[in-house]
Write a structure and sequence with these properties.
With 393 residues, this protein is an alpha/beta fold. It folds into 2 domains: 2-9 and 268-386, Alpha-Beta Complex (Aspartate Aminotransferase, domain 1); 15-266, Type I PLP-dependent aspartate aminotransferase-like (Major domain) (Aspartate Aminotransferase, domain 2), CATH 3.40.640. Helices cover 39% and strands 15% of the residues. It has 11 helices and 13 strands. It has helices at residues 15-28, 38-57, 72-83, 98-110, 128-132, 157-167, 251-267, 269-288, 317-328, 340-346, 365-388, and strands at residues 2-3, 66-69, 89-93, 114-118, 139-145, 170-174, 193-197, 209-213, 293-295, 307-312, 330-331, 333-335, 354-358. It has a 7-stranded mixed beta sheet with strand order 2-8-7-6-5-3-4, with helices on both faces. The chain has a 4-stranded antiparallel beta sheet with strand order 9-10-13-12, with helices on one face. Helix 2 (38-57) packs across helix 7, helix 3 (72-83) runs parallel beside helix 4 and helix 8 (269-288) packs parallel to helix 11 (365-388). The protein is globular, with a radius of gyration of 22 Å. The chain starts with a strand and ends in a 5-residue tail after the last helix.
Length: 393
């Protein structure tokens, strides 16, 4: 199998991730912070060390404001429901994943929140001024996908954040696709709340992610439960990180995330991105030369990630993706990618989405060559089908 679904979940992980998770779980895979024995302290030390590691990675200010959760969806739910209330106005984009869209739809329908959605341009980018033009007196929050999981375009969050700061509006950024691929500096980029997941380009396991919460940002409680400290308090704790953490943490996930982030830092973000974008350019150029292939927002790969979506004329995305999997052993993702507004704006919803290739750090030139050859054969099958259709006089 050639794995080209890294935009969904990176695979494989570095060997150091598997090794550290196994060794740690065998040695100290217990509940951190709930006891004074050695294994418990070691688990707690790992939790604290990983907070510090990720705070440094994102250039945050305070490790206590690095709050662990299950994934980006979990983190974004905490942020969106915890920052918006009845009468507020929020601005987002049509590039968003359902992790943003659905919480905002729920707040529109049930919570008395007004939402504006800013479209992207023909190249796949949202202009900061278009967001600022939607600001109102009651605008409380802007939520932006740092990079599209469908077309790979990286949005100008620093400039968006600057405009938000000028108006006193909070900026929340979904870094699901960029964390581990692009440098993120929450201070320089004017980000108030950053949501990240561990299982994509941070090269950790599934089930771990979280929020980086800026100084002075208060996210309202929407859950409550155990924290392992001050158990006699009747209400959930106010201080970070406990404010946004509930119950037993995923210490195995934290262990894998710790090892994954260290591997990324050792390799260097620039080196990893340069290699992946070289493969992306080869893939884009190869697909573009195939008759009947339609690519989306791939003319210029500046400010792009190694994510590419395409369709074949005369064939629905699901069928093309299924053939690539079944006949050629290429793992990819076909459909709407949990980002329906992107496809509605592109018009690809009529083809039931698109086929997406996501390149990761362990893909090779041979993988790209095989993928291009496979798409060429599937495209030929689509052309033969179109030629066999009866003409209507």
């Amino acid at each position: 199998m050639i794995y080209l679904d890294n935009a969904s979940t990176s695979f494989p992980k570095p060997g150091s991730v598997y090794e550290f998770m196994d060794a740690f779980f065998r040695r100290a895979g217990v509940n951190p912070g709930r006891g004074g024995y050695d294994m418990c302290r070691e688990a707690g030390d790992l939790l604290d060390a990983t907070r510090r590691l990720l705070t440094e990675f994102f250039n945050g200010t305070n490790p206590d404001r690095l709050c662990f959760g299950h994934n980006s969806t979990d983190a974004l739910n905490l942020a969106i429901f915890g920052l918006l209330k009845k009468g507020d106005h929020a601005v987002t984009t049509t590039l968003e994943h359902n992790a943003v869209l659905r919480p905002l739809y729920h707040l529109e329908k049930y919570g008395g929140v007004e939402v504006d959605r800013v479209p992207f341009d023909a190249a796949g980018f949202v202009h900061p001024e278009d967001i600022a033009r939607r600001f109102k007196r009651n605008t409380r929050l802007v939520v932006v996908n740092h990079a599209s999981n469908v077309i790979g375009t990286v949005q100008p969050v620093r400039e968006i954040g600057r405009l938000c700061r000028e108006r006193g509006v909070l900026l929340a950024v979904d870094a699901s696709q960029t964390a581990g691929k692009r440098p993120i500096d929450v201070r320089a980029d004017n980000i108030d709340v950053l949501a990240f997941t561990g299982h994509k380009s941070l090269l950790g396991p599934t089930g771990i992610g979280g929020l980086v919460v800026g100084e002075g940002v208060t996210i309202r409680h929407t859950r409550a439960g155990g924290t392992g400290i001050r158990s006699a308090d009747r209400l959930h704790l106010e201080e970070y990180p406990y404010r946004l953490e509930y119950g037993t943490p995923n210490i195995m996930g934290v262990a894998g995330l710790n090892a994954g982030v260290k591997w990324v830092m050792e390799q260097g973000l620039e080196a990893l991105e340069a290699r992946e974008m070289d493969l992306t350019t080869r893939l884009r150029d190869g697909l573009r030369a195939i008759e009947g292939t339609v690519l989306y927002c791939q003319d210029d790969l500046a400010d792009h990630l190694s994510v590419l979506s395409f369709n074949l004329r005369g064939m629905e995305a699901g069928e093309a993706g299924g053939m690539l999997d079944t006949d050629y052993g290429i793992a990819c993702r076909a459909g709407l990618h949990c980002a329906p507004l992107v496809h509605e704006q592109l018009g690809t919803d009529k083809a039931k989405g698109s086929v997406r290739f996501g390149i990761g750090p362990f893909n090779t030139e041979d993988d790209i060559r095989a993928a291009v050859e496979a798409v060429a054969e599937v495209a030929e099958a689509a052309r033969q089908r179109r030629g066999a259709q009866p003409k209507i006089s």
